[in-house]
From TrEMBL:
Organism the protein comes from: Geosporobacter subterraneus DSM 17957
GO molecular function ontology, one term from the record: phosphorelay sensor kinase activity
Record field: catalytic activity: ATP + protein L-histidine = ADP + protein N-phospho-L-histidine
GO cellular component: plasma membrane
Keyword Membrane: yes
Database matches in PROSITE patterns: HAMP (PS50885), HIS_KIN (PS50109)
Domain of life, per lineage: Bacteria
InterPro entries assigned to the protein according to its UniProt record, in alphabetical order: BphY/WalK/GraS-like, HAMP_dom, HATPase_C_sf, HATPase_dom, His_kinase_dom, HisK_dim/P_dom, HisK_dim/P_sf, Sig_transdc_His_kin-like_C
Residue ranges occupied by any Histidine kinase domain in the UniProt entry: 250-464
EC number: 2.7.13.3
CDD domains: HAMP, HATPase, HisKA
Name of this protein: histidine kinase
Amino acid sequence: MKTSIGIKLASGFLLTAVLSIVTAGLISNYMIDKRFNQYLKRSHENRIQKVVKTVEDLYSSSEGFAKLDPFEMRRYAVLEDLYIEIRDREGKTIFSSGQGHLIHKKGMGNMMGPMMGRRMTDRVGEYIEEKHSLKHESVIIGTIHIGYFGSWNLTEGDIGFKNTLNQAFALSVAIALLLGLTISIILSKQMTTPLVSITKAANEMKNGNLNIRAEGTVNTLEIEQLARAINYLAESLQQQDMMRKRLTTDMAHEIRTPLTTLQSHIEAMMDGIWEPTVERFESCHEEVLRLKKMSDSLQDLAKLEQAAYPLNKSTFDLSKLLDKIIAAFQAQARKKSIRLLSNIEPGLIVEMDQDKVKQILHNLLSNAYKYSEEKASIEIGLERDSHNIVLTVRDQGAGIDPKDLPYIFERFYRGDLSRNRGTGGAGIGLTIVKGLVDAHGGRITVESERGKGSSFKVFFPIEILLHHEKT
């Protein structure tokens, strides 16, 4: 059974928080408890030394332990929860506080309720008795025996502090876990909500709804990039679908017209209405040529679907090649009295695919010719700079609508101005040009203004230039 990413993220965050908090809590509790025990040990040792010092101060060389007040010493032992026994140097007991008060409290701990009983039991522990020498002016004057329950004779305040410390750690861990759970749920929702939207949009696209978009803004860079990629994919697919539908409509219209003409001409000659004259056969031949032209366009489209354009590179003079192509195009330009103006930098020897370069310039010139009015001008330029060899084709035609500029290199795309019968095509000429330019490692740009013409620039990398012959 598969688990949603939200549950996985929340579980992962929570598990990380639990492990981190428990680990930090255990380490902190261990270190603090260790330091506190060290403090209790030093405090207990100081208390024992204080008892020894107090008894030693009660001794005098002339009177011995005559200053020792048994009542006060017994009261001190009860207050400190200690058993105190003082012996002289011969081992004779001078004073004993008795162990009644200690035994009484140990018994009280066992008889108390569960909570207090545990606290008292933890406090008293096992009975321990220490023996220390009593000295006066560096001379041993006797011994003192000090007994108590527990390792360090903890007081109620000491035990209370330790219990409070442990409870504080337990409460901190509980609160931290609750906060970790809350934050993990919030973070998982913040991450999964846009992913759910993106998944929904992708499924809608799969089902054919290309108008769907992944909505919502997120602060996560990767998710935002994914949403933009999905939206861009939807827009691209929508654009491709629109262009395919337009291509189907245009091609159906273009094919239907010559077929209808051929059908009417042939039926008229078969029925004896028309005589089969040379002029009428020429008219049928023109329609056949139109069909062949459309067939060639579809063949070019099939080539366009290939993964890459194979290049057959050779060394040649690019400047002379462009001059020849422009000279060959002069005959077609005269049909509309179009002037071809060239500014070709001479002597550029390059290593490129010569046939592909011819196809690039021929397509650009044909495109400029189609949309140029009579007696207009077409400028062709070739120059080099520090980074590129730049080929420019500028016309004075109708120009390109700004809304069409981002799509003119897309396959099948034709702007509204190119859909008339006189200039119509399959919409793949510029796409082929771009593919050939990309194959040479270059790039193509266009600048256009409605009613003033268009300017296409092809940038080939300077690395294709072998040398420059000055003429």
